Each structure stands twice: as C-alpha cells, then as structure tokens.
Amino acid sequence: MFGRTFLSVNRKADLKSTITRSLGAAGRFLLPPTCLACGGAGRVVPAGPAADGRTALDLCERCERDLPQAAPVDLRVGPWSRVVAPFRYAFPVDAWVCALKFEHELAAGRLLGLLLAAARRAQPGPLPDLVLPVPLHRARLAERGFNQAAVIAQHAARALARPCAPRALERCRATAEQSHLRGAARAGNVVGAFRARPGQALGGLHVALVDDVLTTGSTAREATRVLCAAGAAAVELWVPARAAPPRDSGAVDLIEQDADENRHADVVVVLERAQARRGLPPANLPLLPGEK
To answer: What residue segments make up the domains of the chain, in order of their start?
Structure first.
C-alpha cells in the first residue's frame, strides 16, 4: 500500500510528462515516465481504442493495483446513461486531484485522464460521439488560468480517439464554490448556471460529461439537464474519483467529501430523505465531528 512519504506530484514529474508527450517515442526513451504515487519508474502502455499505439503512463503496475477502487454507481440517482467513476476520492487519487486543481500539476491531470479512458474502454457499448468538460465561469477561469475538468477531458478523449469540445457548454452565472456549501444548498447553487454555447450542434449526439470529482452530483445533474435540453440523445458522466462516506461517521444519510482551495476534504451532509425525516433545514443540521 501507499506510504505518506511518497514522491508526490511535482514540477519535475510534470516536466517529464509534458516533454514525453511532445517527443513521442524518443521522449519515452530519453525521459521515461515517473510513477506519481511512489516516484519509481512508470511504464509505456498500449494507447487508443485499437491499442495500435503506445503512450507513457506515469504510474507503475504495483501502485495501479493499489489504487482505491470505487463501487459501481447506482444509475437511479442521476439522469445519466452511464457513470464512469473508477476510484474513490482517497489517497493518492485525492492528492492528484488537488495537485491538478490548485497547483496546476498537468502530469496529474494527464494521468487521471488516461486512467479514466482505460476505465471507459473496459466497459461495453459504443463510445460517446463527443467529450466535453464541466466548464468554469470566465471569472474563475481567469483567476485559475485553466479548467481542471478540461485537462482531464482532453487527455481522456485523445486516448479514446474521441473529439473533445471544451467550450460546448458555458457557465453563464458565477456560483459559490460547491465545496463551501452543505446539502441542498449545492443543488440550488448551480440552477441556471449553464447553457449550451450558441451554434454548438448537440442534437442526437451521445456525449460524455467530464468532471474531476463526483460528490452530490448537483453540478453534473444541472449540466446534464442543459445538454439534454439542447438535444443530446444521451449523456454519460465521467469522473476519475467518487467521494465515499467515511466509516463510523454517525451520519443519518450520505456523507461525502470534496476538495477545497486549502486542500482539505470538507465534510458535506447530503440532505435527501433526512430533511423530511428530521424536519430540519440544511443550515440547522448538527455538525459532525471534525466539521467547522
């Protein structure tokens, strides 16, 4: 299993992965991939739906076997035709998500995208016609400089030889950080936040919507509603990581985690049946141990 003293995602690994992508076979020979979990040697693996190419993977076989696997998602909880969420939001996947999101570690984004593509490739059925990320509002994009979901989506789409449309969906209303909100406030926060870009043809297409972490699903549900209203025939949800309820939390319903700007895992109580049963609005729910 992983130790906490592992060589975390770092600028050196980021540089190696970027150069490797640029130089192709020569880069793989001169600058071999580095495992982002243990710091050891990565490996070169088959790439593409037909496995007719090779790509560098910044992950060794042993660390890949030890990644925290997620249980299948119950499709009854959302409007998606399929949910691809291969990993639990736990170490080291959570560290990679945070490194990409808050430190612009592109090597982590590339690894997450390749792992996501591999998980979808292993599932039956035709691949989507189009891959698109959950967008950031232009103000947030200007502040952060990039969209972490778009980085993951582009690498996943390239590995599956699918077109990626990073601007097909627009965030037309600035919203509060979802990681700062609890329960039903998350759903209300994103209502009306998205629109299909004018001129973007989605009619009849089977699309994949990509985000970094699945928590309550509020953001993905609203984005999916907009895509379907714009004519998408089916929407798959792809996320590398799915938040999992901590054990022995004492929560009445589902407890989920999300990464905030301070790289913490905020505890979020998801109110669905619990609100009716207890008669409490979200703001009045008792905080769990460790919540602030």
So the answer is: 1-66, 69-242
Q: Are 183 and 287 in contact (CB under 8 A)?
A: no
Distance CA 5, CA 118 (A): 28
Residue type, 245: P
The answer to whether 38 touches 2, Cβ cutoff 8 Å, is: yes
Q: Of 249 and 147, which is predicted with more confidence?
A: 147
- Per the prediction, the chain carries an average pLDDT of 74
Phi–psi pair at 247, nearest 5 degrees: -75, 150
What tokens appear for 265 in the block?
């895992």
First vs last C-alpha separation in the chain: 31
Cα separation values, 261 from 1, 108, 130, 266, Å: 27, 17, 30, 10
Q: Is the pTM of this model over 0.85?
A: no
Element (H, E) at 218: helix 218-229
The pLDDT, as a whole number, for residue 74 is: 75
Residue 146: pLDDT band by 50, 70, 90 thresholds?
A: very high
**The domain 69-242: what is its CATH number?**
3.40.50
Contact residues for 21 (Cβ-Cβ < 8 A; gap 6+): 27, 56, 110
